[in-house]
Amino acid sequence: MRNLFFVLLAVLTLSACSQYQKVLKEDDIKAKYEMADSLYTQGIREDKKGKLKKSLRLLDQIVPQYRGKPQGERLAYIYSNTYYELESYFDSGYQFERFTKAYPRSEKTEEAFYKSAKSYYEVSPRYSLDQTETYKAINKFQEYISRYPDGEYIGDANEYVGDLRDKLDKKAYEIAKQYHHTEDYKAAIAAFNNFIENNPGSAYIEKAYFYKLDSAYLLAINSYAQLVPERLRTAREYYEDYMKYYSEGEHAELAKEHSVDIEERLQTNNTNSNS
To answer: Of the candidates 121, 156, 181, which is a domain's last residue?
Structure first.
């Protein structure tokens, strides 16, 4: 009986494959539609990527032919969502975007707005690379949040926007930090100033305040003698800025060491000037 079961299963599988190939090759768009819809439904229900891939091959052939027809909305949605479920996020982002424009009153429109944004979130690269897709994802999430402030996905949307903004913050901070590491202290100070101004709520804000101070301090002590006093006073101002907000911060002890050295150097300079 067990062997018979496997034989029957093999026969049914071959028969289904044969039917699929037949529908795929023929010109009957109704048959393609019905099989694509059936395979999609099974693929979602059973979490079977293979069935979704088969459905997608059929959908590729017929979606354009159903635009403007009653079945067009259903096909456009499952076409977009098939790409999404297969983690082909560039395609799903684009297709869901098209869906929202073509069917703005659909009951699936909110989901489509969200999944379009989520698709671009998924392809957002690590912080060190070009962030075009990150900006696009943020814009898409903001569009969703604006349209659906009480929407089903609002919590996730806000969380993902936070993740994306953190990535942009890290990129901007690391660019400034790179100037510091390469001892281009003037550029570092300018970059950290811009970062502090543009990212007041960033997780990197304390570090930015400290490394602005550190850059100014190192610039001062490595300058020509005539430039040292003025640059030390600038570093002192940056120290006061840091301590105003982060007197118990991660870098507070090193900041205090800088301050002590700054005051000693200024005192020495004043003494020499008065001699």
So the answer is: 181
